[in-house]
């Protein structure tokens, strides 16, 4: 799961843009801790009462549900879209500036 964490944090930052990355990362960390503690305690009780197979099935079911939910998340990459629009605006401003400069030079040459 350690390799999956950076991807989750990055995806969370994309989905919650324009909120800061710190806020989304903090909420993801908090929920991971709460679910980790809850599942560890629950699995321990299941193992005590029903054995290791029941505990493993419990964890498998929730990991499977999480995988399905993750697959169904709409990937609306807001931060990337905002960065692309910013880059396009910068290019447009440069082209407009160049166009203004060249038209001034042409006007001066005509005089």
| Global Rg | 26 Å
Beta-strand fraction estimate: under 5%
What sort of overall outline do the alpha carbons produce when their principal axes are compared?
elongated
Q: Which spans of ≥5 residues are poorly predicted at pLDDT below 50?
A: none
In DSSP terms (H or I, runs of 4 or more residues), the helix count works out at 4
The tally of beta strands, per DSSP, is: 0
Could you give the distance between the termini? 71 Å
Largest sheet: none
Question: Could you list some keywords that capture this structure?
Answer:
mainly alpha; single chain; 4 helices; 111 residues; 2 domains; elongated
Question: Helix and strand layout, with pairings?
Answer:
Layout: H1 4-15, H2 21-50, H3 52-72, H4 78-110
Helix pairs in contact: 1-2, 2-3
């Amino acid at each position: 799961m350690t390799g999956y964490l950076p991807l989750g944090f990055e995806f969370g930052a994309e989905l919650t843009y324009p909120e800061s990355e710190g806020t989304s990362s903090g909420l993801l960390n908090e929920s991971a801790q709460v679910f980790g503690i809850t599942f560890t305690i629950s699995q321990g009780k299941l193992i005590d009462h029903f054995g290791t197979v029941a505990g493993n099935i419990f964890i498998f079911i929730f990991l499977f549900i999480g995988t399905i939910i993750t697959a169904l998340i709409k990937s609306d990459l807001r931060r990337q879209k905002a960065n692309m629009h910013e880059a396009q605006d910068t290019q447009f401003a440069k082209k407009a500036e160049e166009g203004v400069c060249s038209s001034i030079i042409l006007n001066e040459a005509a005089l």
